[in-house]
Amino acid sequence: MADDFPEENLNEDVALLRDAWANELNAPELLTFQTDLISDMVEQVQNQQSYVDEMSADVATLTEERSFTNKLYQMEIDRIKYMLASYLRLRLMKIERHTRHVLHASMDKLSPGEVDYAHSYKDLYESHCRDLLLSKLPPDHQQLDEPHMIDHPDLDTFVFCQSNQDIGNVQIDDRGSEHVNARKDDRHVLRYRVVSSLVEEGKVKLL
User: Fold this and answer.
1) Which of 119, 77, 75, 89 has the alpha carbon at shortest distance from 21?
2) Residue 138 has pLDDT above 80, yes or no
């Protein structure tokens, strides 16, 4: 049994997970699912939980100091589990809020499980609406997928953001006459639409 807690790449991955969670929390639209990061974090958490459980079960070597250390490790594992669960819940909330928009315009941002969830949620919602009201209306008033009926995320909402690197001039208006010079670690309050592509590219993070 190893004496040290397995932490290879953990700190870096936790920082990336925290940024992915904060971006998803603050972005008005659904962002691209972080497949590799989430898969790696789930695997690391499972391995670390097994390690802590094994250490706790080894009564012969479980000193008071080691017991205290295990509790600290468990707190860190629980913190990571919370971020993972919160990240996934945030995404499901956005899928439910903008289901038709997501299925029309953001399918490439979903995980396979989220694709199934979005279709299932859409079918259940439409079935509920038909049973509750639509079946009682004329056929030409029973549609739910007309363009004007699709709820879109508000990309013009303002967000706090920080540059992860020197980016240079970023256009902040529709006419191209106003720019902001975004340098590494600079913080700004901008319309999300202005930085949406930079967030997806990892050049900017939301706060």
Assistant:
1) 89
2) no
d(CA 202, CA 199): 5
Q: Which amino acid is at 46?
A: Q
Return the axis-axis angle of helices 35-57 and 10-26, rounded to nearest 10°: 130
How many Å apart are CA 105 and CA 91, to the nearest integer?
15
Q: What is the pTM of this model?
A: 0.84
List, in order of start, the domains of the chain with CATH numbers. 10-153 (1.20.58.1030), 154-206 (3.40.5.60)
Do 188 and 204 form a contact (C-beta atoms < 8 A)?
no
Fill in the DSSP letter of residue 181. E
In the three-class reduction of DSSP (H, G, I as helix; E, B as strand; rest coil), residue 177 is classed as coil
Rounded to 5 degrees, φ, ψ at 82 are: -60, -45
